[in-house]
Specification:
45% helix
């Protein structure tokens, strides 16, 4: 299953796509946010349609204690808006630590902080997607409610 991951930020929205088997996660160029969440959501939905994604995963930033703040509200709103522009199912997935993990990977790859800032959002989306795909692989048919 091809999945598009979305890491919603205030300046850029990171994107990543899985392969058709749902094994590999590859970062895509980030989308620069506009003044309109409607336009941003439409652009994400169009990207998902163009890439033939079968699911869209939006990162939900929650605190370590499970609380949700303004960023989570923005992510929930974006997920709801995206679902208005596509028939592809849109789900939320815990994105705790994805940006930290992404920044660490970029540092290990030797990117300077200036270059890393430009790609960290999409790298975070790739980390989010890896987490989602791993979680999906761990769900058994019984967990999913299959007979």
């Amino acid at each position: 299953m091809r999945v598009l991951a979305v890491d919603v930020g205030s300046v850029r929205t990171g994107l990543a796509i899985s392969d058709e088997l749902g094994i590999l996660a590859s970062p895509l160029p980030a989308l620069h946010r506009t003044e309109s969440i409607r336009k941003d959501a439409r652009a994400i939905a169009e990207t998902a349609d163009r890439l033939k994604a079968e699911r869209i995963v939006v990162g939900l930033p929650v605190g370590l204690d499970g609380t949700e703040g303004p960023a989570a509200t923005m992510a929930r709103e974006m997920a709801e808006r995206i679902s208005r522009y596509t028939r592809i199912p849109v789900v939320l997935h815990d994105e705790r630590w994805t940006t930290v993990e992404a920044a660490e990977r970029l540092r290990e790859a030797g990117l300077d902080s200036r270059r890393a800032r430009r790609v960290v959002d999409s790298q975070a989306a790739a980390v989010l997607l890896e987490s989602y795909l791993e979680t999906a692989r761990q769900i058994t048919p019984e967990d999913a409610g299959a007979p």
